[in-house]
Amino acid sequence: MDTGSSLQNRVPRKRRKMQRVTMIDVAKLAQVSPSTVSLYLRKPSAVSPAAGQEIARAISTLGYVPNLVAGGLAAASSKVVSVIVPSIRNAFFAETVSTLQSELALEGLQVILGHSEYGEDQEEALVRTALAWAPAAVVLTGLSHSPETRKLLQASGVPVVEMWEIGGKPVDMAVGFSHPQVGASAARHLLSKGRRSIAFLGARMQEDHRAAKRASGFAEEAKLAAERTTCEIINHPGAATVEAGSLLLGRALQQVPSLDGIACSNDLIALGALFECQRQGIAVPDRIAVVGFGDLDFSTSCIPSLTTIRPSGDLIGKEVARLILAGIHGEHPAGASRIIDTGHVLIERRST
Amino acid sequence: MDTGSSLQNRVPRKRRKMQRVTMIDVAKLAQVSPSTVSLYLRKPSAVSPAAGQEIARAISTLGYVPNLVAGGLAAASSKVVSVIVPSIRNAFFAETVSTLQSELALEGLQVILGHSEYGEDQEEALVRTALAWAPAAVVLTGLSHSPETRKLLQASGVPVVEMWEIGGKPVDMAVGFSHPQVGASAARHLLSKGRRSIAFLGARMQEDHRAAKRASGFAEEAKLAAERTTCEIINHPGAATVEAGSLLLGRALQQVPSLDGIACSNDLIALGALFECQRQGIAVPDRIAVVGFGDLDFSTSCIPSLTTIRPSGDLIGKEVARLILAGIHGEHPAGASRIIDTGHVLIERRST
DNA sequence: GATGTCCATCGTAGCGCTATGATGGGTATA
DNA sequence: TATACCCATCATAGCGCTACGATGGACATC
């Protein structure tokens, strides 16, 4: 091919070493053109059964693995979905990501993971790299993002799903539930149990806007209640851990000696509170009722078993996947169906 | 350019619609060649400060986002590290993946995540897609893989790190610790506390080979002990959850009424066992001593606080990242330094 | 002044694939 | 028999970037 058609004759360039099996090799062996192989790979039904068989045989004898990078470049959109969560260590998001990944894998989509550690600047940087992959979709957590992030996403034209929160204006699509409503449910439940001195125990609420919204929903609902109801919001600046829960309960008792009901922004915190009660000889639920959030693994087994609110992390993952796949298949949901409320359920157990 | 040099004249092809800002746009605006822009992006120091500034300005005015897919294709290796874990819901792996992701992000590497659900076939499929991304490295969990998986990996020439286990022959590199030794440490600790009727409680050990190895290390060590020592291994076929722990303790007591010490393959199981003891009025550690594995969040706070073995999931993540980055920078570790033992630490608390 | 070296910069051939439109033979329709 | 229409298949132009080697000016050395 080196025709020397330009101004000067040039030494044929050393081609990069390369021994990888390509689609062309498959095509040669199967005695068809590369386009047919490509077509077969993307839409087997469009190729005659005879040719298909021949191609399949060639693929397996050569051990051909398609190069998705090349495919992504040619198709101007890669088979990748970029998912950005605050933290993968958080069981909530781990569950969602896990489900999402499984669902997307069925359609040959890969998940690229990033975590923002609850930082908007970090998130912005992650979105930037995410877009550099020309992903099939971008999935973010929550509805709070920097203006620059929103601009980047909007300009990109890539489908965007914001998950784990609804109630604001999403960039594109949203799947989740209302956090204030979760807080309200918790408060209503405690009030219905006759508790009048209640508190919300949360962690990292300066950064975790969703937890903060649960707290304010809780406080709002308490305000609506009969008089003689006191309500406190207590925050731990560190991460939501069992240990934080123990600390928070201690602080709550100090601040509100008459405390008779708490809601926690996370089951881990609730578990810590239960432990602290046990340590201090406080009867649960007799003296203090405890409501958690998350319905984590241990909530049925702990002592007493934990009344909690289940946000259905896996359902969120499923719905996000559904939205993304619909978009890829050309069925772009419109209007209200671009926002999906997965709701929440209060599960009453022994702790209230 | 459409020279019509081939057999027939052809209508100039409709070019694909395209409005994305490319490197060429940046180059034009900065009045340099595209190569210089590319060079600047990859190695800013190789470009004169004047040109560099010009390019930087152009990038920001155009809002240029490099296309990593194109870069990956041209460079024959994408800035992606494919990580395959059994389950991201498992706190151990969540921790490692989280750390790994953070470390790699510092060097502009992305993590593509897959989970195998402890299935070798699933893992093989994941490895296949992973390789389709021409990743900078592949990270797997454990040393047990299907022969086909090993063959695929070896043939690919991509750096491979197997994590969370050492003690066998890795495909390429390994970072982790010896699971039999963990089991042995647990047994030794229980024996040192005078326990003679001990059991190992594990979950899903038919699939989770590492848990099974901890169990057999435990049993081996028990065998070496003074006579009159009995040792049982009890398996729960489902996932390692708190609930499973409660069930397992019940079964253990049934099988070994004289039970006075247990080791669990996971802190969640240990926590479930603690709860069950509390429910049945069994004193821990007086009647039964409990050793966990994982040093999870709650282990310090639960009642009694849990003696456990810390495997340092974040250290594993860090070391995996180090190995990968060294490889990318051309420093290929050789020989023994391709296997890194992150060890384990037994942390004694109140439960023994 | 000639030659060599170094450095910043440049030109361009691919990387492996997909999308577009063309081709040509077979079948249905006029 | 002529025409239209399909369908399976094919040829090829990019997708946006990187890496290779070339270029030419600045400076040092002979």
Shape of chain A: elongated
Number of strands of chain A: 12
SSE arrangement of chain A, N to C: HHHHEHEHEHEEHEHEHEHEEHEE
- Residue share in β-strands of chain A: 15-25%
Rounded to the nearest angstrom, the distance between the terminal CA atoms of chain A is 79 Å
Number of helices of chain A: 12
User: Reading side by side through the largest sheet of chain A, how are the strands ordered?
Assistant: 2-1-3-4-5-11
CATH topology of the largest domain in chain A: Rossmann fold
CATH class of the largest domain in chain A: Alpha Beta
Structural class of chain A: alpha/beta
Question: What oligomeric assembly is this protein in?
Answer: homodimer
Q: How much is the average pLDDT of chain A?
A: 91
Q: Which homologous superfamily in CATH is the superfamily of the largest domain in chain A? A: Response regulator
Biggest protein-protein interface?
Answer: A-B, 56 and 57 residues
Q: If you compute it from the alpha carbons, what radius of gyration of chain A comes out, rounded to the nearest whole angstrom?
A: 27 Å
- Structurally, the number of domains of chain A stands at 3
CATH level-two architecture of the largest domain in chain A:
3-Layer(aba) Sandwich
